Amino acid sequence: DAGVIQSPRHEVTEMGQEVTLRCKPISGHNSLFWYRQTMMRGLELLIYFNNNVPIDDSGMPEDRFSAKMPNASFSTLKIQPSEPRDSAVYFCASSLGTGGRKKLFFGSGTQLSVL
Amino acid sequence: DAKTTQPTSMDCAEGRAANLPCNHSTISGNEYVYWYRQIHSQGPQYIIHGLKNNETNEMASLIITEDRKSSTLILPHATLRDTAVYYCTDSGAGSYQLTFGKGTKLSVIP
User: Which residue has better confidence, A77 or B91?
Assistant: First the structure.
């Protein structure tokens, strides 16, 4: 298996522009997570999907952030409009099952820079 | 806020065992202990997890104290490729949440 695939690997944009990050989870996994990592705040959970349904989006910073999972093999995280403080590495992770066996598989991340 | 406390950094000589400690001061009876690591510019990687008993897999060993308030991750023969930030956390069986703290930056020295 190719693992969790994220694109793009790097994104540089200007403040106010729309940014879309993409994720393909591991085939057969039914849980998907979006995390954000910064030096100041470390790894933060943004949103969690189970069987394509958003279960917890309490970590989404504000209304400028939205995430979708139209099917089991694809998810997007959109920021509109983007701001410099959104600059971070965004990780997607997937896992099989729920609850205690939290063996998450992370993608390589998208390094976002908002100028 | 992180649920666990770890040393900020550690060094280990190549070929020697690396022992990384973690304090789980608020862990409850049904919460598992998890260890992940993050090599520079990559996503976190699962290493091992356990509930009460010590565990071993191809990557590492996990020692959990009887009161479960602390755990130790052991890399038996550290290599340069083990240089990474190591995160410990704990989470209940019914929870999907994994909260990562600052972790321990392990440097394996030739």
Answer: A77
